[in-house]
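Its record is quoted verbatim for completeness.
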Amino acid sequence: MTEALNSKDIIKMTNINKVYKMGNNEFNALSDVNLTISEGEYVAIVGPSGAGKSTLMNIIGCLDKASSGEYILDGLNTSCNDNKLAEIRNKKIGFIFQNYNLLPKLNIFENVELPLLYLGYPNNKSKEKIKSVVEKVGLSNHLKHKPSELSGGQMQRVAIARALVTDPQLILADEPTGALDSRTGKEVLKMLMDLNDEGNTIVMITHDMEIASHAKRIITVKDGRIISDSLNNREVGA
């Protein structure tokens, strides 16, 4: 069952733990994580390899469940069966992955359309919606191109369009510049900043503090725990 909350909190985690069993041993990937992220925030979650940030991302993204604790996403309790969790994920979250995760046999229009198909979005409305978000990322002239015909930066822009097409409550970006050169990476980060300025809630996962510095709040994870959580007052150039 889901339960509504009268709150502007998009993410509210209380005492989240994630335990993996490895033979006769157990590994605590996350330990007593408490985290609240409000509507309109731009948050970077940082930490070294093995710190637990990817596990935290998977739980935030409803790709995995906590072993214990409570996670409320935009007023909905994620302690539910897998089918309901997938429904929540598809409705509430737009994903941007490091390696784009575009389907190579589909053109740009079709790749961006996929989340709408999963939600059963009416065909008569989806065409204009897709064109609108593709125009927003500056690729209106590439609708019929396949991913192999695009640069890395263009493919990430398609991924951003795909993330935006369902009007999600949360944009979850996993190392969004990891496969890009420095110049193109800055362009993508500028786009994320602009989206946040428009009111989109963004959570970005990265190991790179320079990338994290573009966010307005930085959360550091180490050994499965949040060790710091602070507002970022640094002025970042375009």
